[in-house]
Amino acid sequence: MPELPEVEVTRLSLSGRIQGARITGARLGKPLRWPLGCDTRNLVGRRISDVSRRGKYLWFELRGPDDAEAGGLLVHLGMSGSLNFAEQPSQPGPWDHFDLLTTRGLLRLTDPRRFGAVVWSASRDEGAAAKLLAGLGVEPFDPAFDARMLHEALRMRRVAVKQALLAGDIVVGVGNIYASEALFRAGIDPRTPGKRVSLARCARLVDAVRDVLQLALAAGGSTLRDFRNAHGMNGAFQHQALVYDREGLPCTRCGAALRRIVQGQRSTYFCAHCQRR
DNA sequence: ATGGGTACCTGTCTGC
DNA sequence: TGCAGACAGGTACCCA
Q1: Phi/psi of residue A219, each to 5°?
Q2: Are residues A18 and A129 in the same domain?
Q3: Alpha carbon distance A270, A257 (integer Å)
Q4: I want to staple A229 with a disulfide (CB 3.0 to 4.6 A). Which of A13, A15, A73, A154 is the partner?
Q5: What digits encode the pLDDT tens for the residues A114-136?
Q6: How far is the CA of A248 from the C1' of C3 (A)?
Q7: Which of strand B's nucleotides are less than 7 A from any protein C-beta?
Q8: Overall pTM surpassing 0.85 (yes/no)
Q9: A255-276: per-residue pLDDT in tens?
Q10: Which residue in A114, A143, A165, A88 sits closest to A1, CA to CA?
Q11: Longest Cα pair distance anywhere in chain A, in angstroms?
């Protein structure tokens, strides 16, 4: 699922309601991608002081009774995960694999495929969290993400620019939907080797990545199947996609049939007429 | 350092 | 109706 817009929509729909809540209990369902890394009883009594995002990860900052730093939970939604917040607790379903009972309500991770994870870490900058966050690229809305930086980062890459965008070590948060969408808007053939993308085209790509993510954010993300925000609402950006999942349909710009190819075992959608190497 | 492939797991859809 | 196969928003890890 969830690329940056979906994760950020989750954070925004959650943070105001859960900030300050005290944890009164926790429940684990089936195993997720990694073990929690602490006894669930250790979480009880801690307070959620903040929810932040890095790439596609969410970080729930925890405080102890004396307001001292008390670690946190790093959450990833994987391919099919979503977080839901409900004031009234309910019985877990077969896909509900992590519950955090709080004084404000129930925070629940639903994840049919279980590629998601909830990992405890003593801090965001050390231990398990730091290890997972290490090597992530720059945030797409960080001013450091600019044409010169992208051009420099792509200079040594022979892989296709689509795969370089997806890798997450140059810029974070651009997943399979938004990589195709951004490349279409920038007019760049997704098969172009990274090192062949000119500085001028890097500038267009930076803008396109930001535009697409911003539009998706405003639409509440994309819901292909599983994604819901913390209030259970679908995203709507999938209806605004210009190329993703539109194989054979006419390009909105030139009318040519859109194509689907496979790059690194992932589908890529593009217009072979509008997007050039 | 880069890049290719595999693995994790479950649900849904398509075609025979 | 049944069943096999393809495919789905991600990413760590292993081996060239």
Answers
A1: -90, 5
A2: yes
A3: 9
A4: A13
A5: 999 999 999 999 999 999 999 99
A6: 28
A7: 1-12
A8: yes
A9: 999 999 999 999 999 999 999 9
A10: A114
A11: 63
